[in-house]
Structures are given as C-alpha cells and as structure tokens.
Specification:
Helix content: under 10%
Strand order of the largest sheet: 7-13-12-9
Shape: globular
Strand content: over 45%
CATH architecture of the largest domain: Sandwich
Distance between the termini: 39 Å
Largest sheet: 4 strands, mixed
Structural class: mainly beta
Radius of gyration: 20 Å
CATH topology of the largest domain: Immunoglobulin-like
Number of helices: 0
C-alpha cells in the first residue's frame, strides 16, 4: 500500500444465502499497528465469496458491512502488522492478523512480479497489456497509472488511457464485466523496423488504492 494513504484492507458482512443482511458484527483491535492506525466504518461495499459458497452471487451487489482501513505514518516505508477479532452476528469468532507492506514499488509492497509472454510482428504496433480496476458492478475505481521501469531494448512502449475488454476468470464476480468495454490503461509495443528475436519490458502498475504490481512482458518478435 502507498505510504500515508488510507487504504481498505478488509470488509466484513453477515448475509443470508439470498443476500439479505443479517446484522453487523462486532470488531475489536487485539494488536494495534506499530507504524500506522486502523479505522473501522459501517458502509455498503462488495463482499468477496468463493464460487463454492452459496453467497457467491451476493458479491455482485453492494451490501451493508464494516470496512477496515489502514493508514501508515507519513513517510513510513516498510512492514507493519495488526490483529483484530470479529464476532459475527451468528456468534462465530474470527481472529485475523494483517501483515502490511508499505511502499511505492512492488518490491516494497512484497508483491511477486507477474510474467506475461507476448508475440509481436516486426515493426507493427501490438497491444501487449490492459490494466484496469473495477467493482463487480463494472464501475471504475479510478485511473491505473503505468510506470515503465525497464524499457525494451529493441523497440518502444506506448501507454494510453482508454477502454478495452477485461479478462476476469469465471471464479471472479467481475466475470460478467468481460462482455463490455471498461476504462483502463493500454500498453502497446512496437519493435524496431526489421528486428526479429526476443525483447522484454518491465512496468509497474499503480492502482488507485495504492497497490503496485510489477509486470514483465517477454516479447517474441517475428
């Protein structure tokens, strides 16, 4: 997460399988973070359920619940931890420890690099990536910014804002959003004229919530 930014790290709700709201749970802080603070607020938001949960479709609509947010101390970069417990409306007790990574790079945030293979025709402009962040109702959560951290050796990258089709897996409640164009950042690659062989480029994707993802594009030029 981005230093000093108030960031959502969890959301708790109690729903019936028909998506009706039962009641708010009780959340208590067991261990406060050493380099920041936790806040709790009752809002409506999207819950996350796995496909084998009878409430999976409930994740496609906003429901009442309690959001947990974390904000690091100004300028702090590094790790932090916090621990809470939630007593759900049905009396179930959950204890959760959050291991928090604060920084402005994917490495600082403890996130593994994603490797994406692509093939491009020599000299042609080829779309190699599309980065977006949306809610399950397909609305945009804000602009995704792309930072080129290693330019290609035998070509160029071009970044532009626009709309395209996302590719969410069926297990993601945003799967139905694949049927329509959504806002995001498009990444294009163009090799030098006449070049064939291997090329690569690395970018960091900075999402509006402060999450940073490193992506390595391995490009075969033919």
């Amino acid at each position: 997460m981005w230093p000093g930014t108030l960031t959502k790290i969890d959301f708790f709700t109690n729903l019936n399988p028909d998506c009706t709201f039962i009641d708010y749970g009780t959340i208590r802080t067991l261990e406060t973070p050493s380099h920041g603070a936790l806040t709790f607020e009752r809002i409506t938001d999207f819950a996350l359920y796995y496909m084998n949960n009878s409430r999976f479709d409930c994740g496609k609509q906003r429901v009442p619940g309690t959001v947990v947010r974390y904000q690091s101390d100004p300028g702090y970069v590094g790790r932090d931890t916090a621990k809470i417990e939630e007593i759900a409306a049905d009396g179930e007790l959950r204890t959760i420890t959050y291991r928090l990574f604060v920084g402005k790079t994917a490495e600082d945030q403890g996130l593994k690099e994603v490797s994406v293979p692509r093939t491009s025709v020599s000299g042609s402009i080829q779309k190699v990536g599309f980065q977006t962040v949306i809610d399950p109702d397909c609305s945009s959560l804000g602009e995704t910014r792309i930072r080129v951290t290693r330019a290609p050796s035998h070509g160029t990258l071009k970044i532009q804002q626009g709309e395209d089709y996302a590719e969410f897996p069926k297990s993601n409640p945003r799967f139905d959003c694949n049927k329509q164009k959504v806002p995001g950042s498009l990444i294009y690659y163009q090799s030098e004229a006449g070049y064939t062989g291997q090329d690569s480029a690395r970018v960091e994707v900075i999402y509006p919530q402060g999450l940073v993802k490193s992506v390595l594009y391995s490009i075969t030029v033919r």
